[in-house]
Amino acid sequence: MSESFLDRSRIESLVDGIFAVSMTILVLTINFPQGLDIKDDIVILKAIEKLIPQMIIYFVAFALIGIFWCIYHSRFRHVKKLDNTFIWITLFWLMFIALMPFSTSLNGDYPMFHTAVLMFHVNFLILSFLLFILWVYASKNNLIDEKLDQKTVSLNRNILVVMVVVCLFALIISFFSPSISNLFYFLIFPGILLVKRY
């Protein structure tokens, strides 16, 4: 295990910066139609009504990125040492965080096309899987706080497993109903509560 060339504060700053930018530009995935002959409020309301699919995808993506940010930091606080492998996995993970505005835009613009929806689900599946790998790697290579009990380590791992399973489930559902599959991410919340309870 080679010692990291970066310290915790720089990684935290990079993570927060990429999350902040990605979450901010997500709003640009909602595209109000140009060139409308707007004569009254009805025209605007009808245009907004057509934006509902894009807005749903925006809210889902924003909430999920927020969940990833919370989960990353709640686990990162237990990581007391860094090595180069941990850094590179984190960077690879951040690359897919930065990709989220693109996959969200694709899904929002073409919600009835499976390829566009699939790109969105694959993006989240990779994010959840890499975060799982990151935690497993840290716990197996003595990077986390030695005082952290095994029960907490396992709980954190199982929560990440829930996220992987839900993302995989949403991806599978997309083959049958692309639009409905986006809503399956809300299963993350009861899934996490279930894991914490048992």
- Let me know the largest β-sheet: none
Give the number of DSSP strands: 0
Average of the residue pLDDT scores = 88
Instruction: Give the helix proportion (percent range).
Output: over 70%
Structural class: mainly alpha
Portion in beta strands: under 5%
Number of self-contained structural domains: 1
How many helices in DSSP terms? 9
Q: What is the rounded Rg? A: 19 Å
What is the string of helix and strand elements? HHHHHHHHH
Q: What is the distance, rounded to the nearest whole angstrom, between the alpha carbons of the first and last residues?
A: 34 Å
Which parts are unreliable, with pLDDT below 50 for 5 consecutive residues or more?
none
Shape: elongated
Q: Describe it for me?
A:
- This protein is mainly alpha-helical and 198 residues long.
- The model has no long low-confidence stretch (mean pLDDT 88).
- 29% of the residues are buried.
- It has one domain (8-197).
- α1 packs parallel to α4, α4 packs antiparallel against α6 and α6 (114-140) runs antiparallel to α7 (150-173).
- It has nine helices and no strands.
Task: Please give a handful of descriptors for the protein shown.
9 helices, mainly alpha, 198 residues, elongated
In short:
The protein has 198 residues and is an all-alpha fold. 72% of the residues lie in helices and 0% in strands. The chain has one domain (8-197).
Give the helices and strands, then pairings.
Blueprint: H1 8-25, H2 41-50, H3 52-76, H4 84-98, H5 100-109, H6 114-140, H7 150-173, H8 178-181, H9 188-197
